[in-house]
């Protein structure tokens, strides 16, 4: 006999991860847990895997990394390690002893090295492309094209202030100059090179600017953005320098209410800049008027109460380790943070920006991304890379759902919903579960485990096969062509239990195991109505 109860579609993760603790305010489409997931393609999936690009001998932490392909044919991955070495990878992607360019550099665990492409000021030299490295207490290192120890060394003509341990901690290129700052002996000053020589900071064309001295502790980061120089201080202070007039530059304060957590705690996202403050707010820097007459900021971390999630899950004593990287190919913003009790970045928050009207948060605890950067693939599309605390560089977002040959868990939990989004009167009624149905894209002959929790209590767990075999009760295939391509499979399981509110917890963790859920349906009977099956 056919089922005569009611069927409710569960809005599965359409609003992403939430940090809200008030169950009455959480939207039905929110997720209470979204670990190692992705929303790509409009379904709920496990996030892409990770494979090893290369390993540094001695298992040091990878403090910073950079993909350098200055001429389109000589691609190198450059890394700065926790043992004070600057290395490049070899043709096979390895970081051998012969690939060490500089060793014996000073390392400050919470302060990353900032790598900046510069040079090519003129057409005079074939090796004029440079990669500069700014790091705490070390003389700025300049790497020539396809560098070795023979063509890597100290910057030629630094300003007099950059001496002994008083070295700049960040740098960037703006207005045809290489800029650096953050040196402890003049922490509120930014230094610019000559516009025709990025290693000359003492010539007639070099510049220095004092940025509101006395506000905040020190300059910590900077960027070139639409003709202006954006500068951040730690722990508070944001400024911009308008350099569009070649004769008159103006220095402006934006705010004293926000600063920057680390020199690498920002990145460009489409037409804006996202940055993380020392108190864990994720801000969007918006130029809101023409001629840059005003700069404002607003918190992305306010979306879905993620500020509460951050306060509960981040070790603010190590917030200076924060890294931010935008992944354009997936339209995702990745933020690596130190979790509670950790001295390394073991939490990655991801903001999915594919739906501009409804950006969605998720989280990942699989990796230890001490450093984050992008690496260009053979198809010229940059993809995400991270360096961990044990000397390994990983290529991320891989098709295989594994990490270096091992498995990892993908887990979600839906909100505790009472079905009042369907009918307000259902909020006070008991629901008796009868079936749980999932519409999935087949991924392989393994299971997704789903626990059904009524009224917050632990419940029974049911298995749903993710392949085209091992069908569950009532399974059928939708839209199958003669070659069995583009299948969408409906899986249905009989369930028991009941209550006013229901939440679903799904996960799998085997090597190579994935899932892709398009829809979820709860077949139920109201508690005060007759049950007919």
What's the total number of strands? 42
Kindly provide the radius of gyration, computed on alpha-carbon positions and rounded to a whole number of angstroms. Answer: 26 Å
Shape: elongated
Helix content: under 10%
Q: Output the number of helix runs.
A: 1
Please give the alpha-carbon distance between the first and last residues.
6 Å
Could you describe the largest sheet, including whether it forms a barrel? 8 strands, antiparallel
Structural features:
533 residues, mainly beta, 8-stranded antiparallel sheet, 6-stranded mixed sheet, 1 helix, 42 strands, 2% helix, 44% strand, elongated
Please provide a written account of the structure.
The protein is mostly beta strands and 533 residues long. Helix content is 2%, strand content 44%. It contains 1 helix and 42 strands. The strands form 9 sheets. Strands 1, 4, 5, 35, 38, 39, 40 and 42 form an 8-stranded antiparallel sheet that branches. A hairpin with a 7-residue loop joins strand 7 and strand 8. The protein is elongated, with a radius of gyration of 26 Å. The model is unreliable at 287-293 and 469-485 (pLDDT under 50).
């Amino acid at each position: 006999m056919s089922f005569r109860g009611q069927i409710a579609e569960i809005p599965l993760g359409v609003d992403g991860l939430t940090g809200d603790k008030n169950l009455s305010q959480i939207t039905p489409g929110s997720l209470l847990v979204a670990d190692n997931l992705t929303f790509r393609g409009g379904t709920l999936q496990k996030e892409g895997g990770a494979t090893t690009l290369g390993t540094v001998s001695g298992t040091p932490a990878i403090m910073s990394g950079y993909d350098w392909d200055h001429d389109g044919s000589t691609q190198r991955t450059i890394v700065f390690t926790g043992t004070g070495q600057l290395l490049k990878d070899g043709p096979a992607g390895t970081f051998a002893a012969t690939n060490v360019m500089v060793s014996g550099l000073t390392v400050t665990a919470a302060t990353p090295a900032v790598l900046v492409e510069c040079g090519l000021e003129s057409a005079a030299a074939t090796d004029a492309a440079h990669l500069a490295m700014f790091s705490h207490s070390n003389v700025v290192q300049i790497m020539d094209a396809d560098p070795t120890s023979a063509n890597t060394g100290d910057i030629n003509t630094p300003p007099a202030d950059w001496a002994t341990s008083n070295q700049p901690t960040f740098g960037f290129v703006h207005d045809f100059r290489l800029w650096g700052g953050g040196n402890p002996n003049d922490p509120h000053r930014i230094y610019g090179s000559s516009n025709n020589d990025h290693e000359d900071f003492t010539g007639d064309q070099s510049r220095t600017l004092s940025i509101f001295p006395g506000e905040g502790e020190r300059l910590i980061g900077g960027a070139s953005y639409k003709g202006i120089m954006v500068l951040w201080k730690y722990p508070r202070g944001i400024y911009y320098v308008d350099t569009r007039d070649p004769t008159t530059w103006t220095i402006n304060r934006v705010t004293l209410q926000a600063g920057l957590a680390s020199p690498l705690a920002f990145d460009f996202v489409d037409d804006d800049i996202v940055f993380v403050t020392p108190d864990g707010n994720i801000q969007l820097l918006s130029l809101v008027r023409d001629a840059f007459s005003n700069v404002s900021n607003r918190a992305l971390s306010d979306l879905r109460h993620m500020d509460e999630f951050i306060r509960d899950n981040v070790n603010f004593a190590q917030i200076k380790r924060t890294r931010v990287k935008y992944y354009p190919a997936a339209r995702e913003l990745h933020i690596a943070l130190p979790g509670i009790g950790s001295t390394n970045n073991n939490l990655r928050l991801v903001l999915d920006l594919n739906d501009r009207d409804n950006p969605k948060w998720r989280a990942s605890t699989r990796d230890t991304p001490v450093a984050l950067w992008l690496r260009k693939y053979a198809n010229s599309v940059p993809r995400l890379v991270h360096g961990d605390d044990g000397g390994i560089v990983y290529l991320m977002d891989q098709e295989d759902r594994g990490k270096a040959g091992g498995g990892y868990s993908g887990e979600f939990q839906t909100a505790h919903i009472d079905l009042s989004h369907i009918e307000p009167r259902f909020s006070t009624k008991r629901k008796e579960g009868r079936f749980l149905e999932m519409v999935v894209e087949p991924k392989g002959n393994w299971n997704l485990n789903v626990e059904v929790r009524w009224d917050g209590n632990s419940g029974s767990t049911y298995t749903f096969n993710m392949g085209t075999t091992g069908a569950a009760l009532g399974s059928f295939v939708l839209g199958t062509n003669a070659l069995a391509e583009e299948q969408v499979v409906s899986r249905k399981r009989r369930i028991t239990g009941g209550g006013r509110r229901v939440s679903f917890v799904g996960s799998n963790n085997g090597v190579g195991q994935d899932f892709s859920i398009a829809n979820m349906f709860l077949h139920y009977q109201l508690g005060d109505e007759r049950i007919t099956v």
